[in-house]
């Protein structure tokens, strides 16, 4: 008989197998100082492109003021308990009443966290008779929510509407046997590649197939659309989206999430979403802070304008220098390059140590061998100087990469170096 811990310690898992070399540098790095476009990494100043702070609200004077006042007024604990039992307040209900009309839905429900929230919502929405059809590149939280589903699920190729239709045809045949329904799940903006989900094309399939659609718009809420209401607003199909989900983490500079949709469906979710029924309510600090952030989102368009000024400046600059940013049509800015894992590692170290550029990197096994993706997140807090220095650093290091300057025999052990 094996010890259940044995396999854990033996190989560490798909990502954990690299922990000894990566920990503290490539994984679990420590960014220090005030949250913003420039921070400190291992004692050095770096331009930070890894914060989901689209509107620059994390350290905006107005949000800092309301957050501080709320902390003094309520402390961290209030209200205590789950909302169903003892954790409901008028402020929680007020925030829901602000969010729902903003995203053009009848009702909204606050969620403690985005990841657990959407998992639990998926679990509540479907039973073993229902079928889920979802984009193959949906975020891990959606995949984990689908894992909870006891019925059938079919993935369609990323943003491939034709393949989605094929999977819907399979789903229709299945629910004819089970007597269930069909839920389609996709994203408003895909957080790795930065491309928007083809929402308008997907909802058009409702004319041919009976389904409901849920979108995760974590990266679109606050950043996309004429008012910042999301990718479905950007694409002009808000009314056709049945359930709209987003976090407060990406644009709002806070924590928590919400799901919005028909009033009767939200009433059901309030009484059946397990992660909310059996977990503490959002602290009042977060709720009051989010009321202020929603006010700013609706009344300060200059925040979104500054974000998009920086997005366009960075993305245009990269393309003018010959970089491949894929099909991004959102603030998420991937930079695609060719190289193996040791090369990518050496290049990241050069960017961080010698050019003061901190950004996230994705390599094998997350993506195919021989590919490197740098993921940059421009925000309203970045400056022209930040962008210009970053473009110059990328130009220099890309030339080094192409010339083979980063060819190394093995990945250095950063855990030992620190």
Q: Would you write up a description of this structure?
A:
The strands form three sheets. The protein has a seven-stranded mixed β-sheet, with helices on both faces. α4 runs antiparallel to α14. It has 418 residues and is an alpha/beta fold. It has two domains: 166 residues, Aspartate Aminotransferase, domain 1, CATH 3.90.1150.10; 239 residues, Type I PLP-dependent aspartate aminotransferase-like (Major domain) (Aspartate Aminotransferase, domain 2, 3-Layer(aba) Sandwich). The protein has 18 helices and 14 strands.
The gist of it:
By secondary structure, this protein is α/β, with parallel strands linked by helices.
Summarize the topology.
Blueprint: H1 6-11, H2 13-16, H3 19-22, E1 31-32, E2 38-41, E3 44-48, H4 61-74, H5 83-87, H6 90-102, E4 107-111, H7 114-125, E5 131-135, H8 140-147, E6 152-156, H9 161-178, E7 182-187, H10 199-204, E8 212-216, H11 231-234, E9 243-247, E10 257-261, H12 263-272, H13 274-277, H14 284-299, H15 301-320, E11 333-338, H16 341-354, E12 357-358, E13 360-362, E14 371-376, H17 384-402, H18 414-417
Parallel strand pairs: 3-12, 5-6, 5-7, 7-8, 8-9
Antiparallel strand pairs: 1-2, 2-3, 4-10, 9-10, 11-14, 13-14
Helix pairs in contact: 4-14, 6-14, 7-8, 15-17, 16-17
């Amino acid at each position: 008989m094996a010890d259940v811990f044995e396999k854990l310690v033996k190989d560490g898992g798909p990502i954990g197998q690299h922990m000894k070399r990566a920990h503290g540098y490539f994984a679990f790095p420590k960014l220090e100082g005030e949250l913003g476009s420039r921070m400190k990494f291992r004692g050095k100043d770096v331009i930070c492109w890894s914060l989901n702070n689209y509107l620059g609200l994390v350290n905006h004077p107005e949000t800092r003021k309301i957050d501080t006042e709320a902390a003094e007024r309520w402390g961290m604990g209030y209200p205590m308990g789950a909302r169903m039992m003892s954790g409901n307040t008028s402020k929680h209900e007020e925030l829901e009443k602000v969010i729902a009309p903003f995203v053009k839905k009848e009702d909204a429900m606050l969620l403690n966290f985005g990841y657990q929230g959407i998992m639990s919502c998926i679990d509540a929405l479907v039973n073993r008779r229902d079928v889920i059809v979802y984009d193959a590149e949906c975020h891990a939280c959606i995949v984990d929510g689908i894992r909870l589903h006891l019925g059938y699920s079919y993935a369609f190729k990323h943003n491939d509407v034709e393949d989605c239709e094929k999977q819907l045809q399979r789903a229709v045949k299945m629910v004819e046997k089970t007597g269930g329904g069909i839920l389609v799940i996709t994203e408003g903006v895909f957080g790795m590649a930065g491309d928007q989900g083809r929402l308008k094309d997907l909802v058009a399939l409702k004319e041919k197939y009976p389904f409901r659609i849920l979108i995760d718009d974590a990266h679109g809420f606050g950043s996309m659309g004429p008012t910042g209401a999301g990718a479905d607003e950007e694409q002009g199909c808000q009314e056709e989206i049945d359930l709209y989900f987003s976090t407060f983490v990406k644009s709002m500079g806070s924590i928590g999430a919400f799901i919005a949709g028909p009033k009767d469906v939200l009433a059901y979710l309030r009484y059946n979403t397990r992660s909310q029924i059996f977990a503490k309510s959002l602290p009042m600090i977060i709720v009051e802070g989010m009321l202020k952030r929603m006010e700013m989102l609706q009344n300060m368009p200059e925040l979104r304008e500054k974000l998009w000024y920086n997005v366009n400046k960075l993305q245009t600059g990269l393309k003018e220098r010959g970089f491949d940013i894929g099909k991004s049509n959102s603030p998420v800015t991937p930079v695609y390059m060719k190289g193996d894992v040791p090369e990518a590692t050496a290049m990241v170290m050069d960017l961080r140590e010698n050019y003061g550029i901190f950004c996230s990197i994705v390599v094998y096994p997350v993506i195919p061998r021989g590919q490197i993706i740098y993921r940059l997140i421009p925000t309203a807090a970045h400056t022209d100087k930040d962008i210009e220095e970053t473009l110059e650093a990328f130009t220099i290091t890309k030339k080094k990469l192409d010339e083979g300057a980063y060819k190394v025999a093995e990945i250095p052990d950063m855990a030992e170096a620190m």
